[in-house]
């Protein structure tokens, strides 16, 4: 059985300001570093074979804390990047409404479509199955990327809940299908 832990990066200053991050390269803040350390502590108790990460700085920093604890090198994959935010990157909801109106979501502002994010995610997961069958893999990525992918892999067990910073979700491939056995867990932060 193949197991994949899907990890959202720790907190950033833009998370606190509720700014759309997209593919902007934002660092973890001090809280995000503490979250990543706690998450790494949780993961060090498991048996892991491979560690992948988005190359965006907030994911990379989170993966570095994990790498140190679990003893794995980080493999970077650009397919793990967050959904591109186009013109909304760096803006808050209030700023978007001021700039483009209440219906800003209906406008073409260059945001990456969910279908494209899912296609990147499915391509990555298919490659994981080919390269790492029956292994345990850690993947450090981003909130929209993880939530779009999880809804595609196992829509029956995934709600509309926003992905929390430094959350841990876990999927297993068995009987020819992905199953989500843990979603958006942050018990390690309590």
Proportion of residues in extended strands: 15-25%
Reported for the largest beta sheet, the result is: 6 strands, mixed
- What spatial order of strands do you see in the largest sheet? 3-2-4-1-5-6
Main structural class: alpha/beta
Average the pLDDT over all residues and give the rounded result. 95
Number of strands: 6
- Taken in chain order, the helices and strands follow as EHHEHEHHEHEE
Query: Helix tally?
Result: 6
Contiguous runs where pLDDT drops below 50 for at least 5 residues? none
Helix content: 25-40%
Distance from N terminus to C terminus (CA atoms, Å) equals: 30 Å
Write down the Rg.
16 Å
> What general form does the structure show?
globular
Structure description:
The structure is a single chain. This protein is α/β, with parallel strands linked by helices and 190 residues long. The protein has six helices and six strands. It has a six-stranded mixed beta sheet, with helices on both faces. Helix 2 (30-43) runs parallel beside helix 3 and helix 5 crosses helix 6 (143-153). It is globular. The two termini are 30 Å apart. The mean pLDDT is 95.
Identify the notable features of this structure and list them briefly.
six-stranded mixed beta sheet; single chain; alpha/beta; 190 residues
């Amino acid at each position: 059985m193949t197991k994949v832990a899907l990890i959202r990066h720790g907190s950033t200053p833009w998370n606190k300001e509720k700014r759309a991050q997209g593919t902007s390269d934002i660092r973890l803040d001090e809280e995000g570093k503490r979250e990543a350390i706690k998450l790494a502590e949780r993961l060090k108790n498991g048996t892991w074979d491979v560690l992948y990460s988005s190359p965006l700085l907030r994911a990379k920093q989170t993966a570095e804390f994990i790498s140190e604890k679990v003893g794995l090198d980080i493999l970077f994959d650009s397919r793990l990047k967050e959904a591109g935010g186009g013109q909304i990157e760096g803006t808050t909801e209030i700023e978007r409404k001021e700039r483009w109106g209440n219906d800003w979501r209906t406008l073409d502002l260059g945001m990456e479509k969910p279908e494209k994010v899912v296609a990147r995610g499915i391509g990555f997961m298919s490659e994981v199955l080919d390269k790492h069958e029956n292994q345990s893999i850690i993947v450090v990525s981003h909130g929209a990327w993880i939530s779009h992918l999880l809804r595609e892999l196992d829509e029956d067990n995934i709600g509309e809940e926003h992905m929390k910073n430094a959350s841990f979700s876990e999927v297993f491939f068995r009987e020819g299908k992905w199953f989500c056995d843990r979603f958006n867990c942050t018990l390690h932060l309590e």
